[in-house]
Amino acid sequence: MGEGLCIRAMERGDLAALLAMVVALTEHHRDVARVTIESLERDFFGPVVWYHGLVAMQGAEVVGYAAALPLGRLGYGARGLDLHHLFVIPEARHLGIGRALVQGVEDLGRNLGCSYVIIGTHPDNVAAQAYYQHLGYGPHASTGKRFSKPLV
Fold this sequence. Notes:
single chain; alpha+beta; Aminopeptidase; 4 helices; 31% helix; globular
């Protein structure tokens, strides 16, 4: 792991760095980012906190982040986390930062009483799939069809 690496809860002062990384990840997936500082503020620090956020600090620089959403299996009385975003800036990759962020999300889940973490990736991203399997994650079978409806 990189020297001086610290994984900590996201703070408001991290939002500008977070915005740049979210935009970079969105562009990597060939999509157009619509995220703003205001939407990040709302989702990580608003009256209804929507995401749990962790940042990786190398010295005073934010070099990566993880964002997780709550999940549940009500009938089983089980809580979980969806590791929705995991990102490390290119110049800080291959230093164990991604692994440390995943571990941070797992620790957060345990502290929240969760019994599982789910991580998704694009079906063609075999490198990420191999990485997650290396970290002990197995395939998650989806059951049933899911439907969506825009609310606006």
